[in-house]
Amino acid sequence: MPKNNKLIKKNEIEDKLPETKEAKRRRIKTNAILTASAILVVIIVVSVGGWYLAYEKPLQATVIEVNDSKVSIGYLLNRCLMNASNTNDTMGMIQSIIQEQIIEQVTLQPPYNFTVTEADIDKELRDEVNASASGTSTTTTGTSTTTTTGGLSDSEFQAWYRQALNQSQLSETQFRDVVKSIVLTKRLTTYLAARMPTTTDQVHLYDIVVADSTTANDVKTRIDAGEDFQTIAKELSQDVDTAAKGGDMGWVPLKGLDSDLEGTANSLTIGQCSNPVQTSAATQAVQSSSNGTNDQPYYLLMVTEKASGREIEPTYVPYLQQRLVQDWVSTQMAIQKIVLKGKGTSGGYDSQTAAYLQYEIEKLKASRGITETTTTTTSAY
Fold this sequence. Notes:
The chain is an alpha+beta fold. The chain contains 12 helices and 9 strands. Helix 3 packs across helix 4 and helix 4 crosses helix 7.
């Protein structure tokens, strides 16, 4: 036991020996390095945390809910920038995304039971890019002529695919989901078209199309005063398809018209001129306006005949098929749970949210060097 006590005392004495200059220098240097490292870690944590809270986290917030499916602000912004024709049309893109979500959620279930494989998605992509890049070349050898349709090789397609994916700024899963929705929409159109009746209610319709409300009201006043509808149509109408014919559109299915025009045409008595109608989607159906400076022209309509169950002319079939899908989506929107979220006081979508989205779009466009004439991906995707 005494021996152990001596050892303890010896160690205590050694611990109290003066620190050499070299040891002190190493200790100070080590402490300085540790301190600097700790400060650097704090700076990095604060910076990354601040960036995440200020930028990344808001973009991850949900802006659209369709049943149990959630869409983030970041995804919405990237989809807007893929719309090269109008990158700032946030509400239009919101409606498109809602439609995509509904079509996917509903058509994968009975009675539709659609399925889309990875091969289907690849085919849709290839068909689109080949259609854009295709051309025909003719080679003559002696009396034999060969016509070859152009398209991208596998390597060219893969290069295009990588570029399109990179430009979209979507994950590959998100990018392919966009294409999947296109495939499902086409299949839904085919499904509904196969069940479309061959007859429908129609009207023999005349139109006058003008650019502004003042001209439209003047036309209405002239017709009410007894002037001839067809004469004024030849004089003023901007519908290049009908003006020379006095506004005669022929027999038109009511369902082939824009919904605003459909209601107006259906309510008219024979020979009556409508009040001016400004459509919500300009020329969304069979009517054709040459007014390229106004996206929302004014229409005056007149019906000279009506018929129930009239045979549908082939010209109008594509419009009616498009309307079938629109009506199907509208019906589904009324029964599905759709919520728009944002910066409103109740957490809802409001003008402040819309302004915030526009601000973020402009920031992204600036950072990516995008202008309104820049095509970020192919027209379809």
